[in-house]
Predict the 3D structure of the following.
Amino acid sequence: MTHIIKNEFLRVEAAEHGAELQSIQVANGGEYLWQGDPAYWPDQAPNLFPYVARLTDESYYLDGELHHMKIHGFAPYQDFTLREKAEERLVLELVYNDETLAAYPRHFAFRVIYELRGNTLVITYEVENRDGRIMYFGLGAHPGFRVPFQSGKCFEDYRLRFDPSCQPVRVGFTEDCFLDGTDTPFSLDKANCLLLAHDLFDQDAIVLKNAGHKVTLEHKEGGHSITIKFPQMDYLGLWHWPKTDALYLCIEPWCSLPSTKGEVAAFEEQADLISLIANRIYRNTWSIKISP
């Protein structure tokens, strides 16, 4: 089942399955969110919890015991429950169940809150620790945006504009997308922009740190734009399906990173995971601003 919120600027649709965005449209009906295509990528905007990206052997240790979890955790594959619905606000919630406990032995509630504020969609992740033990978890977003989102343009006409002061570093990944420890400076042009090209993603995702907390997807000559702000997230993933001419770009703010190649992570020891003591709520807010 899907739910719609809207105001005079935006119409947003989200599904109960995965609490995943299905559509971001402006008042004239123009669509900005990738609509999915099995030939390139069937998803649209997964919410990543309680891990981001890959675990070595799909395995990790917690409380000294070995557990197993698929890529990006289980939230993208679970059905959420509608907790609140208003004209401009939607709250979807996932509460621990037998399936989540088999993969992640913690009692929790994970809420995804969508709110419209003018021409901005504000997304808040809430994690409530209902367990008597500390929760350790990763968290992130994986929205895909149509490129081009203006008629008569092409993918290569667009660029990503970063904050002028940032000096991004590319996080080193192996060919199978695990950390390899070889972080390197990532070059932008003189305007602190990255020009889009399909072959940027021939080696899979580009994951950056020290890239600031805001990025704008725009046409090189101006006009429509999408600005993603992620003040509480330290990593930014950029991706489309490798070695294709896919007409979308995923702009992915993350709080944490995947496993190191060949190492089965112990959640208590992975420094970039969030730790949350019992009976507390963690909140993380990011946003998507559409400027048509």
Observations:
- The chain has one domain: 2-291.
- Helices lie at 98-103.
- The domain at 2-291 is CATH 2.70.98.10 (Beta-galactosidase; Chain A, domain 5).
